[in-house]
Design a protein that fits this description.
single chain, mainly beta, six-stranded antiparallel β-sheet, five-stranded antiparallel β-sheet, 2 helices
Length: 516
């Protein structure tokens, strides 16, 4: 006859390091590595730990209109100043405090700026395709209505290339350039329509510096709204050479190009493409992008929010990170990449419109309502005194065993010198987030938690390196498990190193034949 029995349980111990390889959306859930993440929100993925993201403080308050763009001017003495452009004018945002009066009146804040140094000093020039070109000499802003006989309100983009100012005629495939080291005079028109087979109009330009082995060589990259990029080499447009016309993908936003070291990053509907990858490959490999591991995430956001303003790529070499601003709705989010490891994470809570970096610090203009528009400075560990909530769901893991197992005990490792709260739990067999298990531990710090606060809270007060005690999660037998960790902090940043797991295998009833 057949009888049922429960086989003996066997205990297994495992160390599970933090998912420092970042979150990925372009891999099958079963094929992820243990150090990958399905969700990584408000954690910065350092090579050794996950660290709760930086916070911010108010830098400029009571801005009458949304600051659509931020610009940095570098003076001849090496000092820098921060400027913002709104639909009302240009404002000096260098010194923290309430918003000052406008330095120059504008009707559109979607300005593009460039800098050039001439024998007369350092200048910053701005255009937006609606107002006259704005010029700053380090002291005074001036509206420049015409260059030669050309109205400057027809220029939508501006770039400095080999000591020349280049300007894009709005909604056209024509660029214009001034004489070398000049900020005035009649511009020379240079039509490019015959080069672009897909038509459209020029969106942006950027200088691309290539090291050819005997010194740096500058190229000018010109991008259309259809995603074609023309690359030119040479000093004078009258004699320069066309290196080629390449397809990068349709650009996102009005400022899709960003000079990054010796390359140019272009944010497109399929991810971030580099100029070097276009030129150095005979055919386009659409998987080899900086954003290849989060490509589906970028594609989804591009489909939903491509018409929104605020798409931007910028870097912070000190952190070090590359930041992609995504003007999603209702909250604007960012994708952050560790510049050395390539690991990605998502930032929420900043609600940033546009970023700029002045004097080694990152600033961003923030969404709001009339009278509440602000510029923030990235610093500290809290959002203007409010908690920062960081969440991760690690890659699903079978722990090298095909059978079912149940986590009996978990011991997470954190580093912090102050109070914080944390939650841990497990998702089983690819279940959705609402079914996660949880641990509820007594708390010494009141803090709101992610989602609907279904997860409990735990507090640790300790030294620079801390370890929490073993906890018993509410878990069940399953083949695949994903560790969930959430940290809520305000007083200092918290680092997550990894967890020890103790689990049992077996425990299910099995049938056997008993001969009597």
């Amino acid at each position: 006859m057949f009888k049922a029995r429960t086989p003996p349980k066997t205990n297994s111990f495992m160390n599970l390091g933090a998912p420092v390889r970042g979150f990925k959306t372009s891999l099958n859930l079963m094929n992820m590595a243990a150090q990958d993440a399905v969700i990584l929100e408000n954690f910065f993925p350092r090579p050794d730990v996950l660290e709760t993201r930086d916070g911010y403080v108010d830098h400029i308050t009571a801005i009458p209109l949304q600051a659509d763009r931020l610009h940095v001017y570098g003076g001849v003495s090496g000092s820098e100043s921060l400027w913002g452009t709104t639909a009302g004018g240009i404002y000096n945002f260098t010194v923290a405090g309430a918003c000052p009066a406008a330095s120059l009146v504008l009707t559109s804040g979607l300005c593009v700026s460039t800098a050039i140094s001439t024998g007369a000093g350092n200048y910053m020039l701005m255009v937006n395709g609606a107002d006259s070109m704005s010029q700053y000499d380090g002291t005074t802003w001036t509206a420049v209505g015409v260059l030669g006989a050309v109205n400057t309100n027809t220029f939508s983009y501006i770039e400095t290339y080999r000591q020349r100012i280049f300007l894009v005629t709005k909604n056209s495939t024509q660029i214009n350039y001034l004489a070398a080291n000049a900020i005035a005079g009649a511009p020379t028109a240079y039509p490019l329509g015959a080069l672009f087979r897909q038509g459209g109009y020029i969106v942006a330009m950027s200088t691309w510096t290539i090291d050819g082995g005997v010194g740096p060589e500058d190229h000018l990259a010109v991008m259309t709204n259809k995603g074609e990029v023309a690359v030119f080499a040479g000093n004078d447009p009258a004699t320069w050479a066309l290196r080629g016309v390449y397809f990068a993908g349709r650009p996102l936003g009005l400022t899709p190009m960003y000079k990054y070291g010796g390359d140019v990053l272009m944010i497109t509907e399929t991810g971030i493409v580099t100029c070097s990858s276009l030129v150095q490959t005979a055919s386009i490999d659409r998987t080899q992008k900086i954003t290849q591991y989060i490509q589906q995430d970028i594609i989804d956001n591009a489909q939903n929010y491509s018409a929104n303003q605020g798409w931007q790529v910028i870097s912070d070499p000190i952190k070090p990170m590359v930041l992609v601003n995504i003007p999603s709705s209702p909250q604007i989010t960012q994708r952050i990449q560790h510049a050395q490891t390539g690991a990605w994470a998502t930032y929420t809570g900043w609600n940033a419109i546009y970023f700029a970096r002045m004097a080694g610090q990152m600033y961003f203009s923030a969404q709001g309502t009339a009278g509440t528009y602000t510029v923030k400075r990235v610093t500290g560990s809290s959002d203007n005194g409010s908690n920062v909530t960081a969440t991760m769901l690690q890659a699903f893991n079978s722990f090298g065993m095909g059978g079912q197992k149940k986590v009996e005990l978990i011991r997470p490792y954190f580093e912090s010198s102050v109070n914080y709260t944390y939650n841990v739990g497990f998702a089983n067999d690819f279940q959705v987030a609402k079914n996660f298990n949880q641990v509820n531990v007594s708390t010494g710090l009141s803090a709101a938690v992610w989602g609907t606060s279904l997860w409990g809270t735990a507090v640790w007060t300790g030294s620079e390196s801390t370890t929490y005690d073993w906890q018993t999660p509410v878990d069940e037998y399953s083949t695949w498990k994903a560790l969930y960790v959430q940290v809520v902090a305000r007083l200092a940043q918290v680092s997550y190193i990894g967890s020890d797991l103790l689990f049992t295998r077996g425990g299910h009833l099995q049938c056997y034949r008993d001969w009597e």
